[in-house]
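Re: your question about Squalene synthase

S., sorry for the slow reply, the queue was backed up all week. Below is exactly what I fed in.
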Amino acid sequence: MGMMKEALMHPEDLYVLVKMKRAAAQVEKQIPPDPHWAFCYTMLQKVSRSFAFVIQQLGTDLRNAVCVFYLVLRALDTVEDDTSIPEDIKLPILESFHRHIYNPDWHFSCGTKDYKVLMDNFRNISTAFLELGKSYQEGIEDITERMGKGMAKFICKEVETVDDYDEYCHYVAGLVGLGLSKLFHASGSEDLAEDHLSNSMGLFLQKTNIIRDYLEDINEIPKSRMFWPRAIWSKYVDKLEDLKYKENSTQAVQCLNDMVTNALLHAQDCLKYLSDLKDLSNFRFCAIPQIMAMGTLALCYNNVEIFRGVVKMRRGVVARVMDQTRTMSDVYGAFFEFSSLLKSKIDNNDPNASLTRMRIEAIQNSCVKSGMLNKRGCHMYRSSPAYNSVYIILALLLVSILFAVLATK
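Result:
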């Protein structure tokens, strides 16, 4: 029903929504027959549908390695996220997790829902890991060890300064960027990217998620999860949780805009990393999440709803990004469009207005200097035009027919 409602609200997205629905159905049919690999790809769809889609862009060997890499780190993250685990139990698990991936008999029950299933059946991940090539195994082990130790460090340490914030994001996401670059290189499809570019790819995504997930993290039971650095939020409120109260809405939005402005620092590195990729499948795999991060930042900026509920890109825009991201021209165009949307929301009275505008203009200058903006064949973001009732009724009938056809296949 969500997809049908969105098609009615934005009929221009109808074609790409149906196309992505069919593509998602195809992904579900491509589950490998081996039980452990079937578990891996089934779990991938449950813990991240968007990632399960973009990973299909990759060749088989690299796809398997990235699938296992993602699930290993997702399991590690589940241990870190479970605030019910006592520290004296959690810390040794995080620090030794890289050794557990070699042991098909190891598992640790924690997390909830699909994440609990992942942890209870971790032997399937280990079995799949042991079938990967040695270079893939070494890359995954190295990043898992570094990430686990970094997570353990921040279990015992608050995110106080902006440097702390960058360090934490490096451990939980920048290392993912470094790991993926290692896997690409091990596959023979790419040159080894510079570490600072790989790191920025992870930080841009992680900071976007931290901004978007403020309310979910601050309301975490039994203990809040606080990732916004004190150096930023303390300029606006006395306690991080004060941002969610309506009487602090003005300060909350100013703090939010400060956080978004910080995240924008990594956008140009991401553009450089993407422009250096040689393989189209690797490119699409990397580019789609980065575009969605830029779009999400544009939606979050100056948006008090971050402190009230869920803010995310609508399905039609996500489907358009997934379907139509093919070249660097598409990436530059999407970054330019979303940065323009963000720029249009800058309030001159915001304490960081000048800095935000400067960073947006730097991103846009990179897009313009590429010389590729005029080569685009699509637009990622469109304002909703007005449609009369007859058009909406026709769209409803068409959507119903298409769903009926899909249901028979």
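The first helix runs from residue 2 to 9. The CA atoms of residues 57 and 305 lie 34 Å apart.

Happy to talk it through on Thursday.
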